[in-house]
Amino acid sequence: MGTAAEVPSHLNDEKDKRFLENQFNVVASELISVNRSLPDYRNPQCKAKKFSGLPKVSIIIVFHNEAWTTLLRTLHSVVNRSPNDLLEEIIMIDDLSDRSYLTKPLDAYIKRFPIPVHLVHLPERSGLIRARLTGSAMAKAPVLLFLDAHVEVTEGWLEPLLDRVKEDRKIVVAPIIDVISDDNFEYVTASDTTWGGFNWHLNFRWYTVPERELRRRGGDKSSPIQTPTIAGGLFAMDKQFFYDLGSYDEGMQVWGGENLEISFRAWMCGGSLEIHPCSRVGHVFRKQTPYTFPGGTAKVIHHNAARTAEVWMDNYKEFFYKMVPSARRVDAGDMTARHQLRTQLECKSFKWYLETVYPEAPLPAHYKSLGFVMIESEKKCMDTHGRKKGELAGMSGCHGQGGNQAWTYTAKGEVRSDDLCLSVGSTLGLSGAVRLDKCGVAGPSQKHVFTYDKETGQLIHSKGGRCISGIGDRLEMRTCDTGDDSQRWNLEGFREEGYP
Ligand code: UD2
Ligand code: MN
């Protein structure tokens, strides 16, 4: 029933050693049945829903060196908890694993299932993106559904997803992704008001669904939530729409980036993305990837992200490059076909996406500067030092590389670096520390709003009227004084009329 496995102490050494095999506690996984039961986590409104006339689905699972027990638990949970007459097939793509149990023993095991399970062993390492394309090309059902190889689906998970695709073939729909503990395999439910976003690094991120979207969706907790992005691993999509929309970018390697790419593309080219609260699938989230990245981890990830940025983000790609300057130096490869796709599909702009779909994005639709924020006289720049919310905002010698010195001054008056905003402390008086604070989501809080005077270089707190001063390695609010060089800021690329 989804409870944790207790690893007996005599297995402790083995547990630690074998954690590295898959970056989860494989010994705990082995102590649990591959056919374990799970509670029905659905809310009453979801349980009351009835579905009929649903289309059939081809489920596609790609894997590279997956653990035996997590892979089989994925399969058993799908077969046990899906109406089998809706399952056309399960397609498994083995992305050149080198573990012997994934060859003949797996070929033999999958024959026991009451539905067709196809297993293809790829002759070369393709990466998850191209492996999924091999799978989708084989699919016979009108709906594709992708899963990672270490998930467990729960009661009633499939029908709501198929229902949305049937309702509108341009809806791409994901379940709520619950957490299967990487430590003890306990099934832990996630919030039902979380959606997908992304940051300046072009990492996918979970954020709380804003009020705006909860109002749009209405009071019914069994209605889907529209989400700016999907996590990427688990979603259902009309097969023809998948191809009409340009399937995946075959130029992407190993892992990463494809989730934001398909998210931007879906929204910008006439589709939409949803999370269905009646569908819950548990996934083993890992802190590290267990497998190799042929070509080098950072290189591959930057390569994929740069392709997404170049093709889909228009000039907003600069936010990514400012934050991750080394990505400018990777070769993103030939993107002609993807640019053509965008033209052919007559997709909307990234500005439209930010304004309409994701106004809460850490990346502002309207801004007046992007890059360094410098005190000219000292060549010192504002620097987050990689600190977190609540900590002091800092200063250091300008290095011109962006990264921790990458800031934007937004049209709303925030001085922000990714999702952190400069914030005046609550202490009144002449001086006060400037801290990093999570930026407001629905709009900036008063603590975060500054007016920039291009002539004097002052950044003036709109409410308190004091100025940001760079003192040594820190920022302080001080009484404004045009003669004070520590208040004379130069904002990279500043333009009063703003961007874009
Ligand atoms: C998330 C997604 C994942 C994918 C990834 C970005 C969820 C739950 N997971 O990362 O599906 O979108 O973000 O790319 O949303 N694999 C291969 N070949 C490879 C590498 C991986 O087949 O070269 C398989 C792997 O065995 C797994 C799947 O691809 O079944 C996803 O990989 P992951 O589980 O390491 O990714 P995850 O969950 O960290
Ligand atoms: Mn995964």
UniProtKB/TrEMBL annotation:
<comment type="pathway">
    <text>Protein modification; protein glycosylation.</text>
</comment>
<dbReference type="Pfam" id="PF00535">
    <property type="entry name" value="Glycos_transf_2"/>
</dbReference>
<dbReference type="GO" id="GO:0004653">
    <property type="term" value="F:polypeptide N-acetylgalactosaminyltransferase activity"/>
</dbReference>
<dbReference type="GO" id="GO:0046872">
    <property type="term" value="F:metal ion binding"/>
</dbReference>
<keyword id="KW-1015">Disulfide bond</keyword>
<keyword id="KW-0479">Metal-binding</keyword>
<dbReference type="InterPro" id="IPR045885">
    <property type="entry name" value="GalNAc-T"/>
</dbReference>
<dbReference type="Pfam" id="PF00652">
    <property type="entry name" value="Ricin_B_lectin"/>
</dbReference>
<dbReference type="GO" id="GO:0030246">
    <property type="term" value="F:carbohydrate binding"/>
</dbReference>
<dbReference type="InterPro" id="IPR029044">
    <property type="entry name" value="Nucleotide-diphossugar_trans"/>
</dbReference>
<keyword id="KW-0328">Glycosyltransferase</keyword>
<keyword id="KW-0812">Transmembrane</keyword>
<keyword id="KW-1133">Transmembrane helix</keyword>
<keyword id="KW-0735">Signal-anchor</keyword>
<keyword id="KW-0464">Manganese</keyword>
<dbReference type="GO" id="GO:0006493">
    <property type="term" value="P:protein O-linked glycosylation"/>
</dbReference>
<keyword id="KW-0472">Membrane</keyword>
<protein>
    <recommendedName>
        <fullName>Polypeptide N-acetylgalactosaminyltransferase</fullName>
        <ecNumber>2.4.1.-</ecNumber>
    </recommendedName>
</protein>
<dbReference type="InterPro" id="IPR001173">
    <property type="entry name" value="Glyco_trans_2-like"/>
</dbReference>
<keyword id="KW-0808">Transferase</keyword>
<dbReference type="InterPro" id="IPR000772">
    <property type="entry name" value="Ricin_B_lectin"/>
</dbReference>
<dbReference type="InterPro" id="IPR035992">
    <property type="entry name" value="Ricin_B-like_lectins"/>
</dbReference>
<keyword id="KW-0325">Glycoprotein</keyword>
<dbReference type="GO" id="GO:0005794">
    <property type="term" value="C:Golgi apparatus"/>
</dbReference>
<keyword id="KW-0430">Lectin</keyword>
<comment type="similarity">
    <text>Belongs to the glycosyltransferase 2 family. GalNAc-T subfamily.</text>
</comment>
<keyword id="KW-0333">Golgi apparatus</keyword>
<dbReference type="GO" id="GO:0000139">
    <property type="term" value="C:Golgi membrane"/>
</dbReference>
